[in-house]
Design brief:
Shape: globular
Largest sheet: 7 strands, mixed
Pfam family, one: FAD_binding_3
Distance between the termini: 18 Å
Organism: Cucurbitaria berberidis CBS 394.84
Radius of gyration: 22 Å
Helix content: 25-40%
Keywords: FAD, Flavoprotein, Oxidoreductase
Protein name: FAD/NAD(P)-binding domain-containing protein
Strand order of the largest sheet: 5-4-13-14-15-12-16
Strand content: 15-25%
GO molecular function, one term: oxidoreductase activity
Number of strands: 18
Length: 436
C-alpha cells in the first residue's frame, strides 16, 4: 500500500510508525520547511499512553517533561490561594500530569522515531494543492511544486482547518461548534522570580492570564477571553480571521488593565517567535472518509483544548486506523478498513467531545463576586485533592485505558521494538517518490 499523509504533527507520524509495520510505503508532506519547535503544553493519558509504551517511546517522552510541578490559582499580587501539585498517575487531583510535554517536543519524538525507516519519507515545504481524483483505482494529487502522484490512500492530518478536507468533503459534512472563547499563546523570557507551577490568574471581564514553565529555559504564556457582549464577540471573531498584528493589537488593548503580569506578557509578545491566536471551536464530521481519503486527528474530530484529549485522540485514532488497514488483503480497496475504523472509534470520540455547558464559562468569571465565588469553590477542591483517601476513591488513574484497544495480528510480538531501520518490515527497495 502506498499512503500519502498530509501533516507532520502528531497524528500523521504516529500513523506512519504503525503503518510501517505492515510494509506500506508512506510519504508525509508538511507545509513548514522544518519541524516546528513551538507549541504549548499537551497531556497524554489513558490508552494513548499504552500505545506510546508499545512504541517504546515512554522514557523519551518523560525525559522531555515540561518540569511543571503542578497548577496553582493566584490573586492579583501573584499569591497562590489554591494549589494542585502533580500526583503520580492521577491528573484528577492535579491539573498537571507527569506526562506533560510541549507539542513541538512530542512531534519531534515521533519524527525521530520514524524518519529513518526505509519505507517512510518526509517531504517538508510541500503541500497538496489539489486532489485531482479519488476513485476505485487510486487517489491522485497535485503538489505545490506542480508534480502529480497517485496513491492508494490519502490521510488528511493537516489540522483543524484542513485544506485537504475542504476539497474532499462537502460543507454540509463538517460542523464547527464555537465555544465563545479566544486564546493567545506565545513564549516569553524566563525571569528568576518565575516558579515551576502553572500559574492561573483570573481578571475581571471573563479574562484569564497564565504562565507555565518549559524544559527549554523559557516560559509559555497564555491569555484567554470569553466575549461579554455582541460588540466584543465581533471584535474577537474578526481578529481570529485576521493577521497576527491585528490579533496582537487586540490583546494589548483588551488585557492592558488585566492585572498581575499582564503587562510583562504583552510587552514580550512582539518578540515572540511563536505567537498563535485561535478561536476555541470543535470539528465534527458526518463521516471521516470518502473513498480513498480519510481524515485523522483534529482534521476529523478536533475536541478543543477544553477536553485535554486532542493529542490522545490523535494517537489512539492513528493506532486503530493503521490496525484496520493492516487487515486488508493485497490490492483490496481501503474503504472497508476505513469504515471499520470509524465504527470502532467514533463512539469514543463522540463521548470525549461532550463538553458540559458550564465549560469554559466557569473558569472565566465576569464580575468580582463571581471571581470570589469561584475562589471559594476552588479552595475547597484543593483541600479535597490534598487528601490521599479522597484521591484514591474518586480520582482516575491516567494510566488506565479509557478506550479498549483492539488487538491486531502480528503487532503484539514486536510492539515496543520499532521497525528494523535497515530492512524495514516488508519495505520496498525504493519509495519511488524522489521527484516530489
Amino acid at each position: 500500500m502506498h499512503v500519502l499523509i498530509s501533516g507532520a504533527g502528531i497524528a500523521g507520524p504516529t500513523l506512519a510508525w504503525w503503518l510501517a509495520k505492515t510494509g506500506a510505503r508512506i510519504t508525509i508532506v508538511e507545509k513548514a520547511h522544518s519541524l516546528l519547535s513551538h507549541g504549548q503544553n499537551i497531556d497524554i493519558s489513558g490508552s494513548a499512553r499504552t500505545i506510546i509504551k508499545k512504541m517504546g517511546l515512554r522514557d523519551k517522552i518523560l525525559e522531555l517533561n515540561t518540569t511543571e510541578k503542578g497548577a496553582q490559582f493566584i490573586d492579583t499580587d501573584g499569591r497562590p490561594f489554591a494549589s494542585f501539585p502533580v500526583r503520580e498517575g492521577g491528573a484528577a487531583a492535579s491539573l498537571t500530569s507527569e506526562w506533560e510535554i510541549l507539542r513541538g517536543d512530542l512531534a519531534s519524538v515521533f519524527y525521530e522515531a520514524t524518519k529513518d525507516f526505509p519505507n517512510v519519507e518526509y517531504v517538508f515545504g510541500t503541500t497538496i494543492s489539489k486532489v485531482v481524483s479519488n476513485d476505485n483505482t487510486s487517489v491522485k494529487v497535485e503538489f505545490s511544486n506542480g508534480q502529480t502522484q497517485e496513491y492508494d490512500l490519502l490521510v488528511a492530518a493537516d489540522g483543524q482547518w484542513s485544506k485537504v478536507r475542504k476539497q474532499c468533503f462537502p460543507p454540509e459534512a463538517i460542523t464547527v461548534i464555537d465555544k465563545n472563547m479566544y486564546v493567545g499563546y506565545w513564549t516569553i523570557p524566563r525571569l528568576p522570580v518565575d516558579n515551576e507551577y502553572w500559574n492561573i490568574y483570573q481578571a475581571l471581564g471573563s479574562r484569564m492570564v497564565t504562565t507555565r514553565p518549559d524544559p527549554h529555559g523559557t516560559i509559555r504564556a497564555m491569555v484567554s477571553r470569553m466575549p461579554c457582549n455582541a460588540a466584543q464577540k465581533k471584535a474577537w471573531q474578526d481578529a481570529s480571521k485576521s493577521d497576527g498584528q491585528t490579533q496582537q493589537d487586540l490583546l494589548k488593548k483588551e488585557f492592558a488593565d488585566a492585572g498581575w503580569q499582564a503587562h510583562r506578557l504583552l510587552d514580550a509578545m512582539d518578540q515572540a517567535p511563536d505567537f498563535y491566536f485561535q478561536a476555541i471551536q470543535q470539528i465534527k464530521m458526518t463521516t471521516w472518509s470518502n473513498s480513498r481519503v480519510i481524515c485523522l486527528g483534529d482534521t476529523a474530530f478536533a475536541p478543543t483544548p477544553l477536553t485535554g484529549m486532542g493529542t490522545s485522540l490523535a494517537i489512539i485514532g492513528a493506532y486503530v486506523l493503521a490496525g484496520e488497514l493492516s487487515k486488508l488483503d493485497e490490492n483490496e480497496h481501503p474503504a472497508q478498513a476505513l469504515e471499520a475504523y470509524e465504527k470502532k472509534f467514533r463512539p469514543f470520540v463522540e463521548e470525549v467531545q461532550v463538553i458540559p455547558s458550564f465549560i469554559p464559562g466557569v473558569a472565566h468569571p465576569m464580575t468580582a463576586w463571581k471571581i470570589w465565588l469561584f475562589q471559594v469553590v476552588v479552595r475547597v477542591f484543593a483541600l479535597l485533592a490534598s487528601s490521599s483517601w479522597v484521591v484514591k476513591w474518586f480520582g482516575k488513574n491516567d494510566d488506565d485505558e479509557d478506550f479498549k484497544l483492539p488487538l491486531y495480528p502480528g503487532w503484539e510480538s514486536v510492539s515496543g521494538q520499532g521497525v528494523d531501520r535497515e530492512k524495514g518490515v516488508g519495505a520496498s527497495e525504493s519509495n519511488g517518490l524522489s521527484g516530489i
